[in-house]
Every structure is written in structure tokens, then in C-alpha cells.
Predict the 3D structure of the following.
Amino acid sequence: MSEGAIVRVSTVDELMVLLANGEDVWDMPDRSGDPVDILDHDRQCAELLRQRYPHDEELQVAGLVHDIGHQLFPGDDAGHGRHGADAIRGLLGARVARLVELHVVAKRYLAVTDSAHTLSPSSARTLIAQGGPMSAAEIAEFRTDPDFDAAIALRHADDAGKVVGLTVAPLDEWRPVIERVAAQTASASTP
Ligand SMILES: [Fe+2]
């Protein structure tokens, strides 16, 4: 997909196909990145968020879809958060889109503020291209974001959800959750 191409995921069915296609697709096309494929990573990330935040389905779904930018624009690691957010905003709403975009921003925040926070070798490598560690001014501004806590939670789940061979819920189990979030978005945009 070329830079500047407009990609929108308009239906839950399209999104389910895209997520399913994450099987045997990798964050780095040359397999130099994370040790699990995107489908496994997405499901592990969403599962962690479901366990920790059972009432926040928007956050869970954001965890499930946060890396689809890797599939839509392979190789554009620096832009994958924004591309993913743009693709699902119309279907899943502004908050889910924002959380998807913030998963890269939160990584830049934690790189400075949490010395115990460990990135996978792939994530550490791509940090610089994504803007590098935050400045003090960026940190202060990010902390005022209404979705700061949720964004940090997603990032922790993102970094933890890379366990080879871990069994988690099948993708189909997420369909009704996605449908609820999409239905809320549709009703909110109906005049
Ligand atoms: Fe991720």
C-alpha cells in the first residue's frame, strides 16, 4: 500500500477478515521483529486487557486492532499507529482510534518514565524512528490526556502479549464485542 493511500475498514466483516489475515504475518516483513505473528499478538493483547479491564470493551477492541497498520502499510513502523487509527475510526469510533494511535505515543512515554518497562528487541529498535523518548514537555502534556491511563494499559498489554505458544480465545470470540463497539459508534453518529 503506497503512502497516502486511503484505507478504511467499513464493516465488522471486513475487520474480521483483516484480523484473521494476521496469521503468519509479522510486524517486520523480514521476520526480524516480534516472535509471534500479528494474529497471536493481537489476541494476547486483547485478552490481557479483558482480564484487567473487563468493563472497557473499547479498550479491549483497541488492543485487538492496534497493529492493523502493520498489515495495511507493511514496513511503515513509524506510521503504523496513525494508519491503524485512520482505518478503523469510522467503524469503531474516535476513542478506539485514539487508543490505537496512542500505543506508539505511550511507548515513547514509558521509555523515559518507567525504568522497569522492558521493550522487545524489535520495539526498542523502532523507538527512534517513532520519535524517540518523550521530552519533559511532551510527558507533561500526555499526562493530561483523558485517555492517558487507558493508553498506558494498552501499551503494557502490547509489550506483554508476545508469548510464543500461549493459548488464548479464538478470534471469533471477539466478534460480538467488536459488534457492540461498532453499534455504539453507529448510534452515536446517527443524528
Ligand atoms: Fe503491538
The CA atoms of residues 98 and 190 lie 21 Å apart. The mean pLDDT is 92. The pocket of fe (ii) ion is lined by residues 41, 66-67, 158 (CB under 6 Å). The domain at 12-160+168-183 is CATH 1.10.3210.10 (Hypothetical protein af1432).
